[in-house]
């Protein structure tokens, strides 16, 4: 079957309200991407150049993709998503061509945001580029850098890349005019966890005893994706018992289920 190497989402259905915590990061991303796309003249007046690319790094499941989608939604930009690990594994020999096509499409459909997920798959520092597979991955990266160098910072194409491994990246991608803005997306703190729980229980009928503050306090170390899974598991538990209201007991069950078998500081207290 034909597998598409990248995905175009005309208008992602995610807004800033769907993101818990990360206020500072949203602010920085808006300045780096939304402002120059919407008001390029401001940058001209001030005589400064916005970043062409932004790199989001941090543990998996904490909202990197979500943030990129929200920015695309808010700017009405065409959103093109490319998963770098797939370029390296599924589309062997085609990486450079795919990168070229993605940038062509982005320019044609501008304003556009290109999201490159797991960029470390093509941009890890390499000691030797000996094997043909390595050389091919290197060609893909070279094409990406050439595309980025080839356009103007005020063209309305922006690139967001994500990674869990900032430490292994080739410094070439961090040079000025490339990914020159780096934003950390960390694990949520207690308040962040509370905000995320609020979002994922927005449409849920909660019993009066459900205490989201308490849940946030006892889930230290949980990612946004974990917290979402906890909410879903709690609701499924209620459903299984033919209840249409979700109780604190359901949440306690779900917390244990989702975080079971994982080393987390709170594992002992549950
Ligand atoms: P990965 O590195 O695995 O791609 P990521 O950081 O991009 O992870 P997302 O794909 O954005 O994580 O998050 C996975 C899911 O977890 C989201 O679709 C969302 O439902 C939930 N989630 C994660 N972080 C948050 C958050 N800050 N607020 C609300 N929901 C979140």
Automatic annotation (TrEMBL):
GO terms for molecular function: ATP binding; ATP hydrolysis activity. ATP binds at residues 61-66, 200. One of its GO terms (biological process) is protein unfolding. GO terms for cellular component: cytoplasm; proteasome-activating nucleotidase complex. It comes from the Archaea. Keywords: ATP-binding, Chaperone, Coiled coil, Cytoplasm, Hydrolase, Nucleotide-binding, Proteasome. It is found in: Cytoplasm. The keyword Hydrolase applies. Residues 50-189 form the AAA+ ATPase domain. Its main location: cytoplasm. The keyword Hydrolase applies. ATPase which is responsible for recognizing, binding, unfolding and translocation of substrate proteins into the archaeal 20S proteasome core particle. Is essential for opening the gate of the 20S proteasome via an interaction with its C-terminus, thereby allowing substrate entry and access to the site of proteolysis. Thus, the C-termini of the proteasomal ATPase function like a 'key in a lock' to induce gate opening and therefore regulate proteolysis. Belongs to the AAA ATPase family. Consists of three main regions, an N-terminal coiled-coil domain that may assist in substrate recognition, an interdomain involved in PAN hexamerization, and a C-terminal ATPase domain of the AAA type. Homohexamer. The hexameric complex has a two-ring architecture resembling a top hat that caps the 20S proteasome core at one or both ends. Upon ATP-binding, the C-terminus of PAN interacts with the alpha-rings of the proteasome core by binding to the intersubunit pockets. This is Proteasome-activating nucleotidase. It comes from Ignisphaera aggregans (strain DSM 17230 / JCM 13409 / AQ1.S1). The lineage of its organism: Archaea, Thermoproteota, Thermoprotei, Desulfurococcales, Desulfurococcaceae. The chain holds residues 127 to 396 of 407 of the full protein.
